[in-house]
């Protein structure tokens, strides 16, 4: 890539970095480091209904999400600036082809060409699940299996199934019998 274009993209990235740093600073100065009690100004929460704090909890969560998103974008911009210094900027990290300048102009921090980005989005992120899920069944997941000696969901179903379903109400007489 030509030196003039590298300087142009570096300036865009530095401006974006400055913008993101200001965004993070603004969010953090907005009371993000204060406790909930201090940020709301309430002396006591005991006499408040939990719904009274719903808006404050929502706004706190939104601020945390916006800050985290800005930090992720800031990290991406910093990694891109490192690629400029290393001389690998403008090269797709997946297929190692040149990234179109139009794409770099639109998204200067992109590490992928258009085709590889589509593939990455299609594949999605790998799902990292907790190790506990290997031994813990999901709720009602094993209800149809009769492999336990204790009273479980499968046994419960066997007991109530003899009464029929809500579709079979016509089978009952007025005394509640069949």
Please describe the topology of this protein.
Layout: H1 3-32, H2 36-40, H3 54-86, H4 101-106, H5 114-123, H6 153-161
Short précis:
The protein is mainly alpha-helical. The radius of gyration is 29 Å and the shape is flat.
Low-pLDDT parts are: none
Helix fraction by DSSP (H/I, runs of at least 4): 40-55%
The helix tally amounts to 6
Q: What is the mean predicted local confidence, pLDDT?
A: 82
- Our measurement of the CA-to-CA distance between the termini, rounded to an integer number of angstroms, reads 84 Å
Largest sheet: none
Outline? flat
What fraction strand?
Answer: under 5%
SSE topology string? HHHHHH
Which structural class best describes the helix and strand composition? mainly alpha
Task: Describe this entry's structure for a reader.
By secondary structure, the protein is mostly helical. Among the domains are: 3-89; 90-126, no CATH class. 52% of the residues lie in helices and 0% in strands. The protein has six helices and no strands. The chain has helices at 3-32, 36-40, 54-86, 101-106, 114-123, 153-161. Helix 1 (3-32) packs antiparallel against helix 3 (54-86). The radius of gyration is 29 Å and the shape is flat. The N and C termini lie far apart (84 Å). 7% of the residues are buried.
């Amino acid at each position: 890539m030509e030196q003039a274009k590298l300087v142009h993209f570096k300036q865009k990235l530095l401006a974006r970095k400055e913008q993101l740093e200001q965004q993070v600073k603004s969010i953090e100065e907005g009371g993000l480091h204060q406790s909930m009690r201090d940020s709301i100004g309430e002396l006591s929460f005991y006499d408040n209904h939990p719904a009274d704090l719903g808006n404050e909890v929502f706004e706190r969560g939104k601020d945390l999400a916006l800050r985290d998103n800005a930090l992720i974008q800031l990290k991406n911009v910093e990694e891109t600036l490192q690629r400029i210094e290393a001389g690998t900027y403008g090269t797709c990290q997946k297929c190692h082809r040149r990234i179109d300048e139009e794409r770099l102009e639109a998204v200067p921090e992109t590490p992928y060409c258009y085709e590889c980005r589509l593939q990455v989005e299609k594949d999605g992120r790998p799902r990292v699940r907790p190790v506990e899920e290997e031994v813990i069944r999901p709720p009602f997941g094993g209800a149809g299996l009769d492999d336990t000696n204790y009273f479980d969901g499968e046994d419960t179903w066997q007991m109530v199934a003899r009464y029929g379903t809500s579709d079979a109400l016509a089978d009952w007489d007025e005394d509640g019998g069949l």
